[in-house]
Amino acid sequence: MKRWQGIGLLAALTITVATVFLVAQQNPANTIRYPDGYRSWTHVKTAILHPGHPLYDDFGGIHHVYANTKAAQALQKGVTSFPEGAMLVFDLLESITENNATGEGKRKVLAVMVKDSKRFRETNGWGYAAFAGGDPKKQIVTDMKSACHNCHMGQAHRDYVFSEWRP
Ligand code: HEC
Asked: pTM for this one?
């Protein structure tokens, strides 16, 4: 091998290694993006968990569930399987009771489910993410199965979704 060929090969190898390293750094385990614009999606339901509820520690407060167009249409038809690209959002806020009225406080967390059967085979086609305080930069779910999907497994008969459509 001539000397210049060796240098070329070395340069190519260096670029390849650097690229792989950069891509790996840019793609942490959970690459689900913040659901921009979800406040304009379809509102599905609202519920409040009070102190004393078994899930209060993690989910206490007021939550609103939103669905993008694909998810909303599936919910409205009552289908038991959601199409690829369906997204659902669980928007959890503090609940503040004052003067005999309960209202919204600060956002605690924004939880997201995305249907992508190829990417999320291990969790039956759903990807899960959660943004602390609703901050797009603070995604906190690393193990989708143990943090989220195991509990949603109970809803296997409804494609792992709890919320139902109320006319
Ligand atoms: C201990 C059980 C449990 C765990 C753990 C859990 N969820 Fe849920 N999730 C629920 C229940 C129950 C509802 C329905 C709430 C309602 O009906 O108002 C729900 C609703 C949702 C919804 C709205 C769609 C639906 O199924 O109704 C999303 C999105 C969601 N969860 C995401 C997540 C994410 C992301 C995680 C992990 C960080 C997670 N969940 C962990 C029980 C759980």
From this structure: 0.86
